[in-house]
Automatic annotation (TrEMBL):
Family membership: Belongs to the UDP-glucose/GDP-mannose dehydrogenase family.
Domain UDP-glucose/GDP-mannose dehydrogenase C-terminal: 308-402
Gene3D superfamilies associated with the record: NAD(P)-binding Rossmann-like Domain (3.40.50.720)
Record flagged with keyword Hydrolase: no
SUPFAM superfamilies attached to this UniProt entry: 6-phosphogluconate dehydrogenase C-terminal domain-like, NAD(P)-binding Rossmann-fold domains, UDP-glucose/GDP-mannose dehydrogenase C-terminal domain
Alphabetized UniProt keyword annotations: NAD, Oxidoreductase
Cited Pfam families: UDPG_MGDP_dh, UDPG_MGDP_dh_C, UDPG_MGDP_dh_N
Domain of life of the native organism: Bacteria
Protein name: Nucleotide sugar dehydrogenase
Amino acid sequence: KSICVVGLGYIGLPTAVMFANHGVKVHGVDLNPAAVKSIQEKKLHIEEDGLQERLNKAVDEGFLTASTTPQEADVFIVAVPSPINPDNTANLEYVRQATASIVPYIKEGNLVILESTVPPKTVEHIMLPELVKSGLEIGTQIYVAHSPERVIPGRIFEELVKNDRIVGGINKKSAELTKELYETFVGGTIHLTDATTAELVKVMENTYRDVNIAFANELAKMADKLDVNIWEAIQFANYHPRVNVHFPGPGVGGHCIAVDPWFLVEIGGGQAEIIHLARNTNDSMPSYTAQKTQTILNQNKIAGATVGVLGLAFKGNVDDMRESPSTIVIDELQKLGLNVISFDPHIKENKHATQTQNFDEVVAAADILLCLTDHKEFKALDPQAFASRNKIVFDTKNCLDRTSWERAGYQFHLLGDAKN
Ligand code: SAJ
């Protein structure tokens, strides 16, 4: 079997590498020549545990090639972005264009799989009208399925193997062929359904998480009024066998959880009320965080302050800044007239105007340290080893070791904890 993977990003590249490591001939395609070049040269443009070794093996053994144009194959896998437009409607242009780009290379008997997360009905309404242009009959001469990725950045290779997969075919044969293919490396169960159900399931999963996080954020805002530590309360609630409350934070980032619920809002219109409200609640957290920071500074009578932001990535232990709440928190802090200096050990090049690669520089400049990302490096910080001016720290992720910071003389603030 040979596979052509269109889109060599956070999902496409690990998937391509995984098949190649299992002896499948893979050709990867990306519109971005720089991404293609970096793969050919085995230099990674993304950070992911285990990716570098696997990429080296795939390229060295000759199982993975890459270019900016597709080529003939038995299977085509589309793994391109499906972002939202500024008005929160789905942008399916990449999916449409990627599908159109493979049409000249499709032959009878081929299988086309969409991995990107998309609004329900995208396979039917966006992909099939493009694939029909091949002149082949859909469902008998070419097969089409949606097999949404479900892996979590940071643990992609573990989850690619371990997780169950939902495969939705436009007919039974399409689903079965897709299952056979993924059995190459998937150890979890592969469940078969139709394409629209698979599309909905994937979007539902991320929406479940977004709504649950919004619930936690709402509770965190109430903690002040109740004089409780919401992290402790959530931990206790989760000892119940049927309760799994998620955790508050400075906002919800990444290219999935903060995006996918909008697909349902668009489809549901006025009926997607909880989903819509949850999105707004989570989007309110960066400005809530900035205002809390300002309040702490006011309480300490510090004017014209500099905030030292720890963490620019959208979540712990990844190098991805897409849709990161940190960038919005920084904007909000600046709107309040505060100066900002930021540091992220996972983002090696300065990608933000406030960023420095030097932690000591942040400590020296900051009137308050504001932790926005739960990186392992921040958890391991020894506050005895440095001393910031005023010794004030605000942790929005329950990430820092409170006891050691307090022992080092810090005034410790935690989001959702009125017992500060
Ligand atoms: N977050 C919270 N509180 C929590 C959990 C997360 O504020 O309790 C925040 C994180 O800090 C981050 C954002 O939510 O800013 C999203 O992080 P995440 O770890 O929940 O999710 P992603 O975006 O890295 O990956 C999700 C996963 N989906 C689910 O867990 C249902 C992953 O399995 C999907 O494959 C991925 O989206 C995707 O590509 O759709």
